[in-house]
C-alpha cells in the first residue's frame, strides 16, 4: 500500500503541493490529472523521493520514502520514475539500453526479457538500432522499457506518451496498461489525456493549484464531477443554469452537461439556434446559442443548418445525478 500522508512542498516561497493525502492499493492504477502547472510532476517527484517535503510523510508498506537530505541516491529500488526527459544511453542499441537494467542474477533470461519488453513498447524491429537514431517518441518508449526492466513494484509515469503520435499512442496504451495490470505493478500516471484515463485508470486524483480537489473511482468522477474544472479534464462540457429546463425554471443552480448527453428534439426542451458546426470525424459538435445568450455545445451525427432552431433535452435521471451544484 502506498500511503501519502498530508504532504506539502514549496519551491522557494510558492506552495506547489498543499496537504495531499491518499492511499493507493497495490496493483491499482491511479491517474493524476490537472491543468498544466497544477503540481502533477511535483507530486510524482515527491513520491519518488526527489524532493524534501515541507511536511507530511510517504510510505510504501512500512518503508518511508525520504528526500535527498536523507537519502544520498534518491529513488528506491521498488519504485521507478519515467520522467518527461528520458535518460538514455544514445550510442548503444535499444536492446542494450534495456539490458543495462535487467538483473545481473538472471543472465540466462535476458534474451527473453528483452524480447518481452520490446513487444510491450512495440519496438521489436528496432532492437539493434542505436538510440541516438530514434525519434522522440521511440526514445520515450525505450525509457519505459528500461523502467520495466527493473521490475518495479510502483511505476510513476509522467506524461508517458507525450512524444508519441496518436496512432501509436493508442496501440501502446493497449499493450502497456494491461501488461502492468497483469504484472500487478502499482501505477501512478500523470496525464492530460483522458484517453489514458477512461479505459485504464481505477481511480483518478485531480489537482488544482497544488490541492487535491477530487480523488474517486473513474466512473464516479466522470458521471458526477463536483465542478466544471474536473469535467473539463475529459473534454468539452457545458455549465448551464438548470432554469433553462422548464421543469426546473424556478431553481437557482447550475448543471454540467457533456455535449453527447443532450437529446435533440423538434419541440421538447430548451431552444437553441445553430451558429456553427465542428467536424469531429464520426460526428459533429454543434455550437448553439440558448435564449439566455449562452453558448451550448451538443453532438449530432450530421451538421445542422446555420440559424436552424432545435430543442435540447436532458434526461431527468441525468439531471438528478448532477443537480447538486449550487450557483
Ligand atoms: N524546479 C522548479 N523551481 C521552481 N518552480 C517550479 C519548479 N518546477 C516546477 N515549478 C512550479 O511548480 C508548479 C507545478 O509544476 P509541475 O511541473 O508539478 O506541474 P504539472 O501539473 O506537472 O504541469 P505540466 O502538466 O505542465 O507538466 C508550477 O507552477 C511550476 O512553475
UniProtKB/TrEMBL annotation:
Domain of life: Bacteria
Pfam family, one: ABC_tran
UniProt entry keywords in alphabetical sequence: ATP-binding, Nucleotide-binding, Transport
Stretches assigned to the ABC transporter domain: 2-234
Alphabetical list of InterPro entries matching this protein: AAA+_ATPase (IPR003593), ABC_SmlMolc_Importer (IPR050093), ABC_transporter-like_ATP-bd (IPR003439), ABC_transporter-like_CS (IPR017871), P-loop_NTPase (IPR027417)
SMART domains listed in its UniProt record: AAA
GO MF term list: ATP binding
Database matches in PANTHER family: SPERMIDINE/PUTRESCINE IMPORT ATP-BINDING PROTEIN POTA, SPERMIDINE_PUTRESCINE IMPORT ATP-BINDING PROTEIN POTA
Name this protein carries in UniProt: ABC transporter ATP-binding protein
